[in-house]
């Protein structure tokens, strides 16, 4: 049976359909200055959140969720060009009946 085209790809699948984008993304993510810039931008963002005085638990929780959102976004950005490994299957002849 022929593979059916994916008529509703996820944004990641759509991105990964272009091999040159994957190559350029991997090259970009390996640049040392990008990691430094991301780290210092995150530190500055955390500082901005802590500069304002938190007066209640809801504000503190809101700031935590903002930081958590940035961490989740960065994880997606870093892994955008990576494809999951296809698990290897072992041939098990003990389950064959014929």
| DSSP helical segment count | 4
Question: Portion of residues in helices?
Answer: 55-70%
Rounded Rg: 22 Å
SSE run: HHHH
Note the gap between the termini. 25 Å
List the helices and strands and how they pair.
Elements: H1 11-16, H2 19-29, H3 32-51, H4 57-78
Characterize the structure shown:
60% of the residues lie in helices and 0% in strands. It has helices at 11-16, 19-29, 32-51, 57-78. The longest helix is centred in the last third of the chain and has 22 residues, at 57-78. The model has no long low-confidence stretch (mean pLDDT 88).
Please give a quick description of this structure.
With 98 residues, this protein is mainly alpha-helical. 60% of the residues lie in helices and 0% in strands.
């Amino acid at each position: 049976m022929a593979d059916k085209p994916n008529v509703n790809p996820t944004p990641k699948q759509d991105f990964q359909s272009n091999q040159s984008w994957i190559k350029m993304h991997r090259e970009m993510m390996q640049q040392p200055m990008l990691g430094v810039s991301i780290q210092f931008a995150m530190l500055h963002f955390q500082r901005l959140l802590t500069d304002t005085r938190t007066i209640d638990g809801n504000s503190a929780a809101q700031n935590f969720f903002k930081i958590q959102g940035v961490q989740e976004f960065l994880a997606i950005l870093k892994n955008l060009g990576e494809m999951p490994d296809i698990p290897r299957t072992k041939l098990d002849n003990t389950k064959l009946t014929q």
